[in-house]
Amino acid sequence: MKVMKFGGTSVGKPERMQDVANLITNDIESKIVVLSAVSGTTNSLIEISDFLAKGDRSSAKQKIDALEQQYKLFADELMSHPEANSPASKILNEHFEFLNIILKISYSEALSKDILAQGELLSTRLLSAYLSKKNIKHILLPAMEFMTIDGNEEPQIGNIKVKLSQLLKQHVGQSLFITQGFICRNSKGEVDNLKRGGSDYSASLIAAAVNATACEIWTDISGMHNNDPRLVKNTIPIDHLSFDEAAELAYFGAKILHPASIWPAQQYNIPVKLLNTMEPQARGTLISEDVSVKGVKAVAAKDGITAVNIRSSRMLLAYGFLRKVFEVFEKYRTPIDMITTSEVAVSVTIDNKTSLKNIVKELENFGTVSIDKDQAIVCIVGNEIAEDATTLQKVFNSLQNIDVRMVSYGGSAHNISVLVPSAQKQLVLQQLNSGLFGLS
Ligand code: ASP
Ligand code: MG
């Protein structure tokens, strides 16, 4: 059994959804198909929820009506002009009636999760209606019945495994299952979600739970590229990445894959394939445990980084200083990405600025604190690159005119990270494209 996940743009237009129907019925292998919401829908639902949070019901209503209109056109085209009482129009009625009822209920966090869940519920039910119209046998599996997270918002893989296998056992002989990405049930039994972009995570968790032969992530680009195609000309798709390399790239900016979606696949050793709905024959990128291909694979960049610098003569020859510094970040649940130290100073980078003020205040007990905002981490990823001296040389050659703020090298064998001002990010990516890959 394999898992095939289709993102928002892959189901974003009626004809695209029809392409998906073709792709999932192309071969006889049993599969679980995981869908995102139609592109743009989750954003619209967030806007609706935000209007309700502010008590602006009329704007929320307007937005709901506009969305309903959009879905009516979508369903009409998908089902080629159905009559008023068709399955597709019933589906739309149900979900938009629900949104209209919500308008009358007082806002809560839990309610907003209910609103957000409508996107994936709609996309999967519409695909299911289309498949039924085409007489394609399939089962719609409600993600809410098996996808669960614990009190720390961590997926409960053991539980998912048990529940999913129970559900599948109820449908022996069936080979095509459709389910929602993104949505789940939390420890209080409420509707919840795996955060933005979480459908990839759903797919990987499901693949791990059923021990799938592969987890295919279908998007609108042919695999992961060696560099950011939105910022740099002449990028090339990468044939193969190890799980570690893919995790670094996904975390440090490659938007194609949700970073958390690597660990379930890695832990259960399920190959992940990044494929293109628009070009199904393209090779795409294979992510697996194979680490035989050495050398630099790709560069990626992550914006919005803040560097926090703590300078203290007390650090000189002292022990336990770093622990105290780290404890402050831990207290405010703020992950640190990069770190560099000298004998009297330590610099760390953070991505989540929510508690920056409090963090700085507490760090000032240990020394002088300074902040560099609007930085970008540029990350060079590959296999055993830290062992190859020429890579480092090429990296530094590509950075000659750049204000490098920090360098992290040797922490892992497959990553070199540099911190540069965000304003220079594009230039750095371009220069690395020629310096490391000979592409310009
Ligand atoms: N629909 C959700 C989002 O837009 C989940 C996903 O697409 O992965 O974030
Ligand atoms: Mg996505």
Can you walk through the features of this model?
With 440 residues, this protein is an alpha/beta fold. The protein contains 13 helices and 16 strands. The strands form 3 sheets. Strands 3-4-2-1-7-9-10-8 form an 8-stranded mixed β-sheet, sandwiched between helices. The protein has a 6-stranded antiparallel β-sheet with strand order 12-13-11-14-16-15. A hairpin with a 5-residue loop joins β15 (406-409) and β16. α6 (157-169) packs across α7 (199-209). The protein starts with a strand and ends with a helix. The model has no long low-confidence stretch (mean pLDDT 94). The structure holds aspartic acid and magnesium ion (MG). Aspartic acid is lined by residues 7-8, 36-37, 42, 119, 181-182, 196-199.
Spell out the blueprint of helices and strands.
Blueprint: E1 2-6, H1 14-24, E2 31-35, H2 41-53, H3 57-78, H4 87-102, H5 109-133, E3 139-141, H6 157-169, E4 176-180, E5 183-185, E6 191-193, H7 199-209, E7 215-219, E8 240-242, H8 243-251, H9 262-267, E9 272-276, E10 285-288, E11 295-311, H10 321-331, E12 336-341, E13 345-350, H11 356-363, E14 368-383, H12 389-398, E15 406-409, E16 415-421, H13 425-437
Parallel strand pairs: 1-2, 1-7, 2-4, 3-4, 7-9, 8-10
Antiparallel strand pairs: 5-6, 9-10, 11-13, 11-14, 12-13, 14-16, 15-16
Helix pairs in contact: 1-3, 2-3, 2-5, 3-4, 4-5, 6-7, 12-13
Bound molecules: aspartic acid and magnesium ion (MG).
